[in-house]
Amino acid sequence: MRQFSQFACVDWSGAKAERPDGIAVAIIGTNGPPALLSPNPRWSRADVLDWLLRLAETRQDILIGFDLSMALPFVDQDAYFPEWDDSPDHAKALWRAVDAMCGDDPHLNVTSFLAHHQASRHFRHGEGQVGDLFTGGIGRLREVERYQRVTGQANSASCFNLVGAAQVGKSSLTGMRLLHQLDGTIPVWPFDAVPDSGPAIVEIYTTVAALAAGQPKGRSKVRDRAGLKQALTRLNTPTPARLARYDDHSTDALITAAWMKQVADNPGLWNPPAMSDKIAQKEGWTFGVV
Q1: Which alpha helices (H) appear in 141-263, and where do they start and end?
Q2: pLDDT tens figures, 250-268
Q3: Are 33 and 95 members of one domain?
Q4: What is the dihedral of CA 233, 3, 7, 237, to 10 degrees?
Q5: Of 180, 196, 222, at which residue does a domain stop?
Q6: Res 153: pLDDT
Q7: Of the chain's two ends, which shows fewer C-beta atoms within 10 Å, N or C?
Q8: How far is it, in rounded angstroms, from Cα 79 to Cα 84?
Q9: CA dihedral defined by 150, 173, 76, 270, rounded to 10 degrees?
Q10: 234 and 250 together in one domain
């Protein structure tokens, strides 16, 4: 299995603001503790895109995990958007469609996509605002999300649900815009093969890392120095210098970067038995779910 010398976790956000509170980026090398990369005043999604493009240009030997869903459910109904004649037929076409439709939306937002007369039918937009093709109580799930729920590795939410604190739809769709705008400069697993050199991107779920770090199921968030130290110690990782604040976005990113360093050379994580070629290309997979 390919060896990386650096690992990064991007805790992402779908909030409309240019610089949302929810974006955090942590990085760790072969030695020492993980560290937060902290632009002034805060990260924007465009900042993250620029950072990635610099990594690509300089061929950095780094594995980058994004905490978002990189596609929508497809396998359950053999389409992302049943009854829409122009529904994309694979993940990269989905990224392209979302980005093209939202070209006038600032800050990589996805307002225009969610207002589209066909796309909007599939989402729960708010209380009393449910598209006529939104399916089931929680919404449709990708195969990896369904699998996580069965195995107990995570309790993933549907990207078609845009309501509540646990919703991941907007962050995932904004992430698809970013992935399309990378324009292939960084391979994205499992849609692309892992390159022999240079950066690579994977989808991660910070709860998987938190559970590996000993956090209790259902109470995986860390919001103080003592909790961060305990989690990183379980991952055989030193604790960084005192943070300005211990919000769960920052600690999620730090813990997940450390976890990625510990597990990235495990070939089983790159070849999950439940991931078929169709699933890989249509829906993707969450790194670490086996």
Answers
A1: 143-151, 169-182, 206-212, 225-234, 248-263
A2: 999 999 999 999 999 999 9
A3: no
A4: 10
A5: 180
A6: 83
A7: N
A8: 9
A9: -60
A10: yes
